[in-house]
Amino acid sequence: MAFGDVKTPQGLKELNNFLADNSYISGYEPSKADLSVFEALGKAPSGDFPHVLRWYKHIASFDATEKAAWGGSPLPQAAGAKPTVADDDDDVDLFGSDDEEEDAEAARIREERVAAYAAKKSKKPALIAKSSVLLDVKPWDDETDMKEMEKNVRTIEMDGLLWGASKLVPVGYGINKLQIMCVIEDDKVSIDLLTEKIQEFEDFVQSVDIAAFNKI
To answer: What residues does the Translation elongation factor EF1B beta/delta subunit guanine nucleotide exchange domain cover (predicted)?
Structure first.
């Protein structure tokens, strides 16, 4: 698998023929061999060399950090003439590598990418599920001090509970109910427990109903 100067038409033709049956210059993962040929090309080839163009766009899609992590050895002859073989006993395939070394290198690159992805994902803030709840707090009668009732309700503090706006709503016979809004974190606040705590103010509160419940 040898080709000459990839800046020449002949070198590009030989590279195109090689990439017609191979995804990368060496092995089954991108390596420094790909990077050296990529840099030797300098720019994307014309459509006359479709396999080189496909390979060039793929290599270009990796960022500098990913390219720096590639293993293997660069090909100094990528922009020059084909390597010559002086002696059969000293024949060295500069484009190939031992299968075991290749598999180990591919596994290492995969592990590095998985670790990088996990680290990036771990930095994302966890989504906190919240709900908006509108409560109807009903008094015993028209003589109930509604301001004192609301004051007592707002004294309830729970991790993940935030009290909002409130108003008095007529229910008839001169009686008003307290409508009060709150926002809760679903994993921290139980609506059942919250209503029980409100009902503990039994001198003021007759009952508590959920008027509206919406996920935020």
So the answer is: 130-216
**Which among 44, 47, 191, 71 has a CA at the least distance from the CA of 132?**
191
pLDDT tens profile 194-211: 999 999 999 999 999 999
Specify the DSSP class assigned to residue 62: S
Q: Which fold has domain 9-69?
A: Glutathione S-transferase Yfyf (Class Pi); Chain A, domain 2 (1.20.1050)
Does domain 130-215 match CATH 3.30.70.60?
A: yes
pTM of the model: 0.44
Tens of pLDDT, residue by residue over 148-196, are 999 999 999 999 999 999 999 999 888 999 999 899 999 989 999 999 9
